[in-house]
Amino acid sequence: MYELTGINEKLITSFYKTMDKTYQKDNWYTIILVAIQKGLQTVVPQVSITFLEPYLKERLKPFVEYKKLGIIIRDFIDENEAIEAYNNTCNKKTINEDEIVLIDVIYDLLKYDQVIIIADKKYLASATQLLYWRDKYHNALATLNALYKNKPDEMNYTTSTNTLKAPKDKINFLKPSLKLAIANPNKESKKEEIQFELLGYYGREHHMIARSIHYFSEIKKLDSDNEIVDAIAKLKPYVDSDRTIEPSDIYISWYAHCISIYRKLSKNKISTRKALEVAKHYSDILFPHMKGKKVVSEYTAKKPIRECAIFDGLRLLDFSDKRNKIIRSKEEIEDTELYLKEIIKVCNRFN
Questions:
Q1: Residue 166: what are its φ and ψ, rounded to 5°?
Q2: Residues with Cβ < 8 Å from 296, sequence gap 6 or more?
């Protein structure tokens, strides 16, 4: 995860343990909401965060639903429970040949899986999680293909399709129109000035800036009338990534996502070959045009998995590759650690 890159491992462990302990409490929602707000105020004390409240509440909604449905993920009690979860998950009535092969592979890998209980009904944790991510990857590829198809005469870029190598040059196409708007003596707001200033940091902080623009666009969806939020959110259609994105980045990320889920559920007991096999069969269904093509080798799949880019809000994963390694600034890491420490401190007052 990008935000945890470079963060002290003991602090990360402490953060997750504190969140888990707090989540067990009846008043967990209020505690965590206050803790996040306090954490943000510690990092940016000069900025009012009232405009963030609707967004924070929106982000906590899945956790409210999670509690409401009594969702539990755990190991199977026995083989019968594993088969029950498998039968509830894999409906054999309306499937094609590729799906038949996939569910046979899933069955063979039951010992590496777990059960997820939703409203007292049992399903396979692996398939449930991958079905959640399937549409996100499908939509990401469709969006990327449309961007490349519609790019007219190399004149109108987004950061995802801009093949200029230097990050600082990837947003140059935006600057002429912004400068013209800023120079207008009759301009009614400072939105273009805000945008121009933010883009000035893209060259050296492109990972953070691309992610920030995405999340400001999410905040804007909740009808924020904050001028800064509106200005930054309007950059989303153009600054949609932190580097040039190819379709292969999405294919590889899907493989990495499949393999990482099986590694986690099996507590790293699954072999790379088996995890790669199930990822391939999921890929055959999601990206049928890639069937029969080698996307990831077994050698590559053995490497650690980490976040390598963002595209249209989807965090792309990769198998450790120095070319795609994200490096965060010392200041950004220190701010993140300060934020996490404050959240832990606030939560521990109630634990």
A1: -75, 125
A2: 252, 255, 256, 276, 279, 319
Distance between CA atoms of 239 and 170, rounded to whole angstroms?
9
Q: What residues pair up with 306 in beta bridges, in sequence order?
A: 318
- Residue type for 148, please? Y
Question: Residues of 233-267 as b/e, b for ≥16 C-beta within 10 angstroms?
Answer: bbbbebbbbbbbbeeebbbbbbbbbbbbbbbebbe
Total number of residues shown for the chain? 351
Here the tokens at position 72 are 């539990």
Q: Is the model's pTM score more than 0.85? A: yes
- pLDDT for the residue numbered 150: 80
C-alpha–C-alpha distance, residues 127 and 105, integer Å: 12
> Is it the case that residue 116 has pLDDT exceeding 80?
yes
Query: In 10 A of CB 57, how many CB atoms?
Result: 13
- pLDDT-derived band at 156 (thresholds 50, 70, 90) equals low
Q: Which two tokens stand for residue 50?
A: 């009232």
Please write down the long-range contacts of 169-177, taking CB distance under 8 Å and 24 or more positions apart.
Answer: 170/202, 170/206, 170/243, 170/244, 171/199, 171/202, 171/238, 171/239, 173/238, 174/199, 174/235, 174/238, 174/239, 175/199
Q: Would you list the domain boundaries of the chain?
A: 2-68+328-348, 72-139+245-320
The mean pLDDT of 123-146, rounded to a whole number, is: 94
Of 97-106, 215-224, 341-350, least confident by mean pLDDT is 97-106
